[in-house]
Amino acid sequence: MRNNMDQDILKVLYTEEEIHRRVQEMGDELFEQYQGRDPLFVGVLNGCFMFMADLVRASGLKSELEFIGLSSYRDATKSSGVVQITRDMQRDITGRELIIVEDILDSGNTLAFLTKYLMAKGAKSITIATLLDKPSRRQKAITADYVGFVVPDEFVVGYGLDYAQVYRNLPYIGVLKPTVYSK
Ligand code: IMP
Ligand code: MG
Q1: 43-74 pLDDT, tens per residue?
Q2: pLDDT tens-digit profile of 8-40?
Q3: CA 45, CA 71: separation in Å to the nearest integer?
Q4: Domains identified in the chain and CATH numbers
């Protein structure tokens, strides 16, 4: 392999091809649900960037895009539960049907905060599309409407997901070697 990140990966969970196929299926389902309507995709930065790009193309929906930057202060690989807005949306979402695009639903703290925030801003409806779901670690009663893959309780990186802001550009999703973050 060409890149020097592969050596930090314990095992590959989903290959580029598997991700591509699954995202296309999710896009097809979103098209079915939303065709003829006017949804607004809201991507959660930074983790969503690759999934968002592929999902909006896969859906083929005539739609607008927005991004919101959120940070749930993390101690190494665990969420603190405190969510902050690091970059707010640029347009009014009053009365809009939103499709939240997130990389991974883990403790649920991020999406619990975000759905409350978006409803308070006047959203008409919210659909959650998450690439990954780690239900074993949930602290908040949040479920996603569209889930790419259910993952085990391991720290995963790639295809947008990071460890300390690195590995986001891996084309596949893999489990990081624990030695990388226990160093
Ligand atoms: P939450 O715990 O559901 O609030 O998720 C918070 C954020 O933590 C997610 O949006 C991800 O950016 C990040 N996160 C959670 N689990 C993982 C993981 O296994 N790898 C990389 N990032 C993760
Ligand atoms: Mg994220």
Answers
A1: 999 999 999 999 999 999 999 999 999 988 66
A2: 999 999 999 999 999 999 999 999 999 999 999
A3: 9
A4: 6-25+38-71+83-181 (3.40.50.2020)
Handedness of CA 30, 31, 37, 43 (dihedral sign): positive
Give the separation between CA 183 and CA 175, rounded to whole angstroms: 16
Residues 6 and 174: their CA atoms lie apart, in Å, by 9
Q: What are phi and psi of 23, to 5 degrees?
A: -65, -35
Q: Evaluate: CB of 79 within 6 angstroms of ligand 1.
A: yes
Determine the distance separating the centroid of ligand 2 and the alpha carbon of 61, expressed in angstroms: 23
Annotated catalytic residues are: 106
